[in-house]
Amino acid sequence: MTSSLPHVVMLTNAVAPDKLGGLERYVRELSRGLVAAGASVTVVAKRTAADQPEDERGTDGVRIRRYSPPPKTDPLFALRYPHVIVSGVRAHLDRARADGHGRPAILHGHFPVPLLGLARTRQTYVYTCHAPVHRELLSERRESYALPRPVRATAVAGLRGTERLVLRRAHTLVTLSTFVRDEVAALDRRCGERVQPIPGGLDTDWFRPAAVPPPPLDPRAPVLFTARRLVERTGVDALVEAMPAVLAQAPGARLDIAGTGPLAPSLERRIIELGLGGHVHLLGRLSETDLRDHYRRADLAITPTRAMEGFGLSTAEALACGTLAVVSPVGANPEVVSGLSPTLVARSSSPPDLAAAITSVLRSPDLDALRARTRSHVHPRWAWHAVVDDHLALYDRVPVAR
After folding, report:
1. pLDDT tens, 264-284?
2. 3 state DSSP class of 111
3. For domain 7-201+384-395, which architecture applies?
4. Average pLDDT in the 328-346 region?
């Protein structure tokens, strides 16, 4: 006798822990939550390292089927990529469906290129748009992929067309924020009208305040923290540039930066040039335990995004740990802190405005009251059990994939 709960085939670019970005963690944690609720899940994704197995079942019950992408060193990487990815998905899809052992199968995509084959053949699928990928291709990936200048415009245009086709052919469209819904509408107005919002989820059982309350804030020596990919889009460079102005008001301030990316060498140089070596620290990639510990120890978490923040997972994680967050007014950032205080949103992502917002919040007479409300702001409404329930209700309305 098969379960009435579905077998969900997640189609995405990469999945955690193979890659630890926000989208990759979201797909893994949603999959884990669905399995815990009684559904079954297979994730079909590309390898991010040659030693990753083709077929693997995690201790959380999530099965992963992987295929190999073209090498990024290939001069024709951008042109070959769609064909190789579509072929990889096609090679695994029937087996991924069969992993459900008779359960009704739902295909759920999270990245446009792996969905291209389904869109062309008009198969039924759910699509969650996390952000318009074509807008990130040059700003965030230009140091990662071999994209000769004459190819860049073609690659971006092709990806934009792929996204529009995937959106139009989806049976159901989901976004994690109003910002991304509006981005979908900019690509295709009718698609924007069809979006069903389901907020991003986070593990609020893990990301929670420490058992021992933090020490009182010293406004002259605050601990600031950000967890960001080190690329221009995320604004980490602007946050480093803001630190001299912060130190003018809080001379003992410290900024810890978690994350990796192509900006790391230039950030290291700039920290030295600004004389910030004793105040700004690049931590690299952190374990989940270390990440949580840094959220808990911080007086303020900073999300200085310059462009394209589809949900703001790191902001939500900080709030769940009881730590206030200052954000730039970009993408979905203001939505995540909406209802707490407008002072948490900087006027812009420029260094002067980031510094002004940080120092203003640190001096706020309402600081303790705001800190007391941060946990309840995200829990339980964004806890995974609530987000999983929303997805199961959505899947009930989607025809079974054939």
Report:
1. 999 999 999 999 999 999 999
2. coil
3. 3-Layer(aba) Sandwich (3.40)
4. 96
Report which DSSP code applies to 40.
Answer: E
Q: Which amino acid is at 370?
A: L
Give me the amino acid identity at 271. Answer: I
Across 354-382, average pLDDT: 95
The full set of domain ranges for the chain reads 7-201+384-395, 223-378
- Rounded Cα gap, residues 283 and 244, in angstroms: 20
**Amino acid letter, residue 348:** S
Chain centroid to CA 84: how far? 24
Cα 248 vs. chain centroid, distance in angstroms? 33
Half-sphere exposure for 216 (CA within 13 Å, toward CB): 3
Using alpha carbons, select from 211, 199, 209 the residue that is nearest to residue 375: 209
What is the SS3 assignment for 301?
A: strand
Question: Is residue 65 within 8 Å of residue 92, measured between CB atoms?
Answer: yes
Cis before 17 (ω within 30): yes
Same fold, 7-201+384-395 and 223-378: yes
Residue type, 81: Y
State the first-to-last Cα distance of the chain, in angstroms, to the nearest integer: 20
- E-state strands within 90-234: 105-109, 126-129, 172-175, 195-197, 223-227
Q: What would the pLDDT profile of 181-204 be if each residue is shown by its tens digit? A: 999 999 999 999 999 999 999 999
Q: Which of 98, 88, 107, 2 minimizes the C-alpha distance to 45? A: 88
Instruction: Tell which residue, 260, 230, 241, 217, has the closest CA to residue 367.
Output: 217
Dihedral of alpha carbons 359, 267, 147, 175, sign:
negative
Residue 7: strand pairing partners: 40, 105
Fold adopted by 223-378: Rossmann fold (3.40.50)
Residue 288 pairs in a beta bridge with: none
| Mean pLDDT of all residues in 342-365 | 97
pTM listed for this prediction: 0.89
How far is the C-alpha of 176 from the C-alpha of 110, rounded, in Å?
11
Residue 400 backbone dihedrals phi, psi, to 5 degrees: -65, 135
